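Give me the fold.
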Amino acid sequence: MKGKHEDECRNFMKVLLRRPGGLFVCGTNAFNPLCANYTGDTLEMVGDTVSGMARCPYDPKHANVARFAEGNLFTATVTDFLAIDAVIYRSLGDSLALRTVKHDSKWFREPYFVSAVEWGPHIYFFREIAMEFNYLEKLCLYRYTCLNVIFSSVLHDSQVMVSRVARVCKRDLGGSQRVLEKQWTSFLKARLNCSVPGDSHFYFNLLHSTSPIIRMHGRDIILGVFSTPSNRPGGCAVQGSKFNSSNAFPDEMLNFVKTHPLMDEAVPSLGQRPWIVRTMVSCFTVLLSFKEENVPNESGSSKWSALNLSRYQLNKIVVDTEAGPHRNRTVLFLGSSRGNILKFLIMPNQDNSVTNSNIFLEELEGYNPDK
């Protein structure tokens, strides 16, 4: 590839998923992404290769996520060499291929995709994004956020990096032939609020990693690592409702969906404060609690809790929900950019509210790049 270093032109594996009968793999293939199916035992390729466009990024440095749900592949990546067209895309199944609106900053603006999880009728995508602030919003942000974020605002041409969760309905059929044809009608997004309360809230705006959905005290929750620097459009069409499918929505509703994907308020933290606060720290872990028929909205139907953890830049999380001799404890393993692993025992209250009983167990040195 002209203009690229030889090391960048190798085939970097960016998608590796289990599927019935084997594995589904996508690689950058020297900036010409391709996907293929392989047997699970002998790793022999099955059938022909599949285009990696909208399923795998061209550049190995670009973030992407992918997962199978109900026989369809859901991906969040970029579709072009210049990484201008960010997309959430459904393909390779019996359902109609759908994507997000192209080149519309109300839907996406420089997203960094972190993870994707399936819960109920939805797929949730977690990511960081450069949030669009007008002049008044910038003044508000200056008043209520920490200096780290203000500096970030200057460095990013007055754009502020925040973390958001977006979701789509798995069985969305797209819009009409006039509005949102072959595009999502259920796409919604909301800001994730991970902050320390006080006279001036201290925000942890960058999401690095999330856990799968785990069960704790009768509730489905998600854990994430953060650091500093009723029926309405956007709902799912279901049998028995006024509209049996999304492509039966009237054009007025579809136009509203197209121009209003962002929820009005952020998703708040459960308990409104961190679980653990330590000195010399840079990262937080947040718990997302799903409720039945959960939609991230201004009514607060999604609730959160935060956990402040590390001396290092934390960027990965693994959760063991069956730790201990009786397999009834929850232990977090948090990986850092320096290769250290922090181990915590978390013991929230029965309602998953703030507690002072969380215990730091040990710090392991998995890999030290300085040695």
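DSSP finds three helices and 23 strands in the chain.
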